[in-house]
Amino acid sequence: MVFLKLGIKENWLQFLLLAVINVFVGSMVGIERTVLPLLGEKQFGLTSMSAALSFIISFGFSKAIVNYFAGQIADYIGRKRVLLLGWIIGVFVPLLIIVAHKWWVVVLANVLLGMNQGLTWSMTVNMKIDISKQNERGMAVGLNEFAGYSGVAVMAAVSGYIASSYSFRPEPFYLGIAVALVGIVLSTVVRDTRQHLQLQMGDAQKGKRVEQQLSAKEVFQLVTWKHKTLSSLSFAGLATNLKDGMAWGLFPLYFTVSGLSVRQIGVIVAIYPAAWGLFQLVTGALSDKIGRKWMITYGMLLQSFAIWFILVVNHFFFWVVGAVFLGLGTAMVYPTLQAATSDVAAPCWRASAMGVYRFWRDSGYALGALIAGMVADVLGVTWAMGLVALLPFSAGVLVYARMDETIEETV
């Protein structure tokens, strides 16, 4: 008989394996971040910004919708099965991009990428939270996001190098096939965390906390508007990824117009998620000690100021500095928002609450690309970037005014 214990140290091998899996999850997105915006312009001849960013819109909406259902499905069939399903879908993403004869095939591939990310990334973070102690949640999410965005950064740089050395297709996307196959193999080895979740629920009952199972409708209402803290977290998450949707689509185009080479663009595009990932080694754990609210507030404001800084300066070095600050601001909020959501939600409906939060957060990808594309078509890329930066600023103000500190709070 195996006696289970909660804690990162107590489950270090399982935790490490989940972190490695999320490196490959992030790598699937990283392959596209440098290459795909330029691919649309160079090989498919797209001139409209809205059309060029349509792949991000399809990615964002599909990931958001799958996030919403992934938590509910995982509560019923287990995390591991959902994780494996996500990787099986992921195999088809690079294959479709390689054979695409029209841009709509690339858009379809990104619908599948959104499904892959919604299922796999959601499960790695939920499984890490399942096996962690209550005072380790920020660290657990921070390590998970560090792993994922390290994968994004490395593959953004590698794919940019491959594209500049060979071509935009098919060479960078051969990596995607290998990444998906490795993800499937690793996910067959990892153990499900259902028993750890049951152990958490038992500990909550011993602590005399009332944990009533809520319906999907009740959870959606709480996280979206009824609960002032949960709804504030959802808006902050949406604003963060709205900014990232803009950065994903417009940064390569902005720096191309500014005269940078594909390799230089690859460096900047990679440094942003690299800083995002690296700083999360500290920010998630730090929020366990100093609280969530201030990390989120200042992180949202820093994201806005970083974008405006990038628009003001006109030198490769300062653009790199701006990318680092943008990554730092995102790192301050990304694990903290998820940890705060898990603080408030009871274990028996936490995965569903995380699903709703991630639904709104990842809708930001699509909305960011949609808004940025429309504004860029009318006013230009610079105006689009500047105006999008207003959203994280407003979210920071909202969190400051409306959110309660969440450590030790449970609905």
From TrEMBL:
It is a multi-pass membrane protein. The chain crosses the membrane at residues 12-31, 51-70, 82-100, 106-125, 146-166, 172-190, 235-255, 261-282, 317-337, 382-401. Its main location: membrane. It comes from the Bacteria. InterPro entries: MFS, MFS_dom, MFS_trans_sf, MFS_Transporters, Sugar_transporter_CS. Keywords: Cell membrane, Membrane, Transmembrane, Transmembrane helix, Transport. PANTHER family: INTEGRAL MEMBRANE TRANSPORT PROTEIN, RESISTANCE PROTEIN MDTM, PUTATIVE-RELATED-RELATED. This is MFS family permease. The keyword Transport applies. It is found in: Cell membrane. Pfam families: MFS_1. Residues 14-407 form the Major facilitator superfamily (MFS) profile domain. GO terms for molecular function: transmembrane transporter activity. GO terms for cellular component: plasma membrane.
